[in-house]
Amino acid sequence: MRNKKCKGKKVPFPYIEIVNNDRGGVTPSNLYIVVNYNDYGKIRQEIVGVDCGLPQGRDAEKPGLGNRAEMLKENCYVLLTSHGHVDHTGGFVDLCEYRRKKGIDEDIKVYMTHGTMHYMPAIQNDNLKVRTTENSGKPPYSEGAVRRFLNCCIPLGYDEPVNVNDYIRFRFIENCHTMDSAMSFIEVMDNNDNPLINVLVTGDYKKENNLTKDAYFPDWIRHKPLYLVIESTYASESKASEVKKFRKDIVSFINKNKGNKYFNILIPAFSMETTEHILYELASMQAEGLIPTGVSIKLDGQLSESHLKKVLGNPKDFRLKDGIKILPDNLQLVSGIDRKLIINNRSEKQIVVASGGMMQGASQNYLVPWLKNKNTLIYAIGYKPEGTAGYRVANAKPGDLISLGDTNVLVQAQIEWTREFSRHSKQEELIEFILSFDDIRGLFIVHGEEESRNQFVKLVKNDPRFTNVKFVKNLNYKQRVIASKFKVEDIKENE
Q1: Selection from 263, 233, 208 nearest residue 373 by Cα
Q2: Of 398, 397, 380, which is closest to residue 389 (Cα–Cα)?
Q3: Widest Cα–Cα separation across the chain
Q4: Which residue among 126, 236, 402, 495 is least packed, with the fewest CB closer than 10 Å?
């Protein structure tokens, strides 16, 4: 409906509709800001999307927006990218191909930070390989479709304003969820360029990151009246409940197997960001003498390797701290090495960091043989949606029989699981961020389990500290919110 007359509403222009297509779960991240404005007497509409991810695990079984999603995809010409994780970017190529097959001539513009742009080709090519494997060898689209999508991508610096048209502009704000992640600040203006409606979409939010310089958040935004869309992945968890166990578990396993000729430690890690955090932790443990010099450390996975090289080669775009040491001593890259030699190695003590935090990609090659091996530790990292291979492995213990694809595996390996490397905010951090704003006209909770969202909404409503929040709601795919300059005007069911 771009530049077409909208149906009349009893809402003062301009007004926005916020539509969330995350299916009421943690994944995928897929948000639309529908801006309705008066262009010198002509009522027009522009749709700005934020992320277009793939649902993971059982989230894929939930219904989405249906017909309304088709309308939004067809009429969205601007997409903003928070960061490169598949639950935020895995649906980009599908969206572009959907529009192409519908005969929509004008290409969509997909904006992202310079850091995200560095490895977007690797992300999308890896996504195509994984989905093809999961679909019995049938690709969801062609390599040409990936190339067409990449031609739509535009890199952008932080705090660099971009005008969508004369009435809408946006900018990226630094975020520490990943080394290249961004929040999106969107302004809707009048004919004289005066901002009337402000929307801040956090994406996955984290204030600090031990690999990067501190994120800069402009104070002037804190003093603006705005609508805030915020994630809630760990909104029901406190920092006090966070258990830092990774070092202790690794050292304990190494000491327990000191007399053995060999052992294996497999750490399936998300290729972007988590891999660097794990390598940094292992390097620190080496420096402190916690990992003996005889233990080899290997990195497996094209996407992990590609991302690591991009980070080290472009430290400014990834905001790396000066002088930080990410790489363990004598790190070996598995590319070019016969993986079977590593899997069947019975003469070396080794730690393998493999791409595929959900235990897809490179890491899945090790799972079946090493889960059967009692000299092995499988260390699960971060969030694991129910219904995924990662969830089944992370919750298994020796003696359990678990299914991985078409294979049933009797578990003999030791399995540990930690969330300490998660770059999502816990409840206290979300509260601190929300309270830092003067005037939140509407607070919308997204990107989290329904129970977690509802608990957080209840907390905000009942906690006397939140005098700056005028309205709060768990916003899922079932409803959309309509808001003007002044207030939330209505909540409507999606068609």
Answers
A1: 263
A2: 380
A3: 81
A4: 495
Q: What is the pTM of this model?
A: 0.91
Residues 311-369: tens digit of each pLDDT: 999 999 999 999 999 999 999 999 768 899 999 999 999 999 999 888 888 898 999 99
Spatial separation of the C-alpha atoms in residues 60 and 86, rounded to whole Å: 13
Q: Comparing 65 with 132, which gets the higher pLDDT?
A: 132
Cβ–Cβ contacts within 10 Å for residue 142, how many?
12
3-state secondary structure of 225: strand
Q: Which of 120, 279, 210 is nearest to 423 (CA)?
A: 210
Which structure tokens are listed for 351?
């730690």
Can you read off the two tokens belonging to residue 253? 């396993």
DSSP 108: P
Domains and CATH numbers, the chain: 15-238+423-493 (3.60.15.10), 243-418 (3.40.50.10890)
The tens digit of pLDDT for each residue in 143-177 reads 999 999 999 999 999 999 999 999 999 999 999 99
CA distances from 80 to 96, 173, 184, 185, 291 (A): 14, 12, 7, 10, 42
Q: What CA–CA distance (Å, rounded) separates 110 from 6? A: 25
pLDDT of residue 10: 67
The answer to whether residue 1 scores a pLDDT higher than 50 is no
Q: What angle do CA 157, 175, 26 make, to 5 degrees?
A: 120
The b-or-e profile of 315-337 (16+ CB within 10 A means b, else e) is eebbbbeeeeebebeebbebeee
- Residues 83 and 204: beta-carbon distance below 8 Å: yes
Q: Which uninterrupted H or E stretch holds 341? A: helix 339-343
Torsion of CA 3, 8, 9, 14, to 10 degrees: 30
Contact status, residue 198 vs residue 226, Cβ threshold 8 Å: yes
CA-to-CA separations, 317 to 103, 216, 308, 353, in angstroms, rounded: 36, 14, 13, 24
State the pLDDT confidence band at 67, using cuts at 50, 70 and 90: low
Query: b or e along 5-38 (b: 16 or more beta carbons within 10 Å of the residue's beta carbon)?
Result: eeeeeeeebbbbbbbbbbbbbbbbbbbbbbbbbe
* In the predicted structure, residue 8 carries a pLDDT above the cut 50: no
Q: Which residues contact 396 (CB under 8 A, 6 or more apart)?
A: 371, 402, 411, 415
Q: Which residues contact 51 (CB under 8 A, 6 or more apart)?
A: 28, 29, 30, 31, 79, 80, 81, 82, 88, 89, 203
Contact 238, 263 (CB under 8 A): no
- Cα–Cα dist 222/303, whole Å: 37
